[in-house]
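Annotators were shown the component list below and the corresponding predicted structure, then asked to write short factual statements about the assembly.
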Amino acid sequence: MTSETKILLSESEMPRNWYNLVPDLPSPPPPVLHPGTLQPVGPDDLAPLFPMALIEQEVTTERYVPIPEEVLDVYRLWRPSPLYRAHRLEKALGTPAKIYYKYEGVSPAGSHKPNTAVPQAFYNAAAGIRRLTTETGAGQWGTALAFAGAQYGLDVEIWQVRASYDQKPYRKIMIETFGGIIHPSPSNLTDAGRKILAEHPDSPGSLGIAISEAVEVAAQHADTNYALGSVLNHVLLHQTIIGEEALLQLAKVGDKPDVIVGCTGGGSNFGGLAFPFLREKLAGTMNPTIRAVEPASCPSLTKGVYAYDFGDTAGMTPLMKMHTLGHDFIPDPIHAGGLRYHGMSPLISHVYELGLMEAVAKTQKECFEAGVTFARTEGIIPAPEPTHALAACIEEALRCKETGEEKVILTALCGHGHLDLPAYGRFLAGDMVDHELSTAAVEAAIAGLPRV
Ligand SMILES: *Cc1c(COP(=O)(O)O)cnc(C)c1O
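Structure shown to annotators:
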């Protein structure tokens, strides 16, 4: 008898804490610095943008943070999410490996983003905030925050990277259906946007520019805060619900992962899946290889430098030590919009520097090939971002076929691709090009890093 296909948890088995990796690391990540004084930022520096509850989570040294009841209530709309065993993919590949994927596409936004959008909206509403601003790339984060805002009665205003705004009109409609307001970025609504448009009227935008616009508006209004969908510690903290559930689910079938792969844009779905397993690895209960997969067009971990840099293009955020391609780097408009970010989560960057994980880069045609193979076997059309993880999964499974190893491979299928079908159309028509950032382009990009 084949083992189960869907490994499910009941609602009562849903974890009630998020996990903070920091106290379990051999050293803490370097502090975030104020760009003017170059001193570590304090809570007061962040208070114009974030509620105190999230600022505390950003710097907490507690190992576990309880998930509020009001957040668990909303999580129950789609959590616990299923863990699937990819029997059909394994068979098609002819691999002795076992492939598991944690499917986050069952959420209201169709991705993992609501795992943090919901608590962020909750803590802001509890602090008396009326409006949230944010950026969005492919539109996943904007959709998630618009949904979360509707749950707690907050207005949500979103700047979407121009390239995605034009390529993916259905995300805009979804955001508006949830009650959000959306602008293409760069826009003429902010100083940051107007400055870019004056120099590049046809700018395709970038996440860094859209962040500058959203931060500018939040900083100018007392009733308005800013919400970030990735990169920061509190975002990765909220996403650990993914890995905590997956740990329980794998335990039900008696498996431990040998390899964990995930796609990295800012690092939140990857960290969310991997950190609870990294806790186990550091405690010696299992020993998985943990591998990040990034696009070859935006290779912050594999080709960027580990340095202090701004989180946004205009240089309005604090300085974070991270793997970066430079804050004014604008990646080629690949279809995986969520992976077009110049930097990497400081916590992931630190874990990478400590040698606790590895990273690879992939070009988009190989990834879409993997996405199509996955769709034809498992029946789910993946978002372009997790096709990067699937390409690495398939690579690992085929390696196992050569060696005969029965490795257990775990990945996060962090979103479905139902609103990314035009990208599949391009791929199927043979109309997709690969983008790979050359070493010379990397050197040019990082030349403008701030001197710290
Ligand atoms: C936003 C997004 C990403 C990239 O963000 P991470 O913080 O790296 O997870 C990847 N996949 C999907 C489906 C997304 O929505």
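Statements collected:
1. Residues 233-252 form the longest helix (20 residues).
2. Residues 111, 113, 140-141, 230, 263-270, 338-339, 383, 385-386, 414-415 surround pyridoxal-5'-phosphate (CB under 6 Å).
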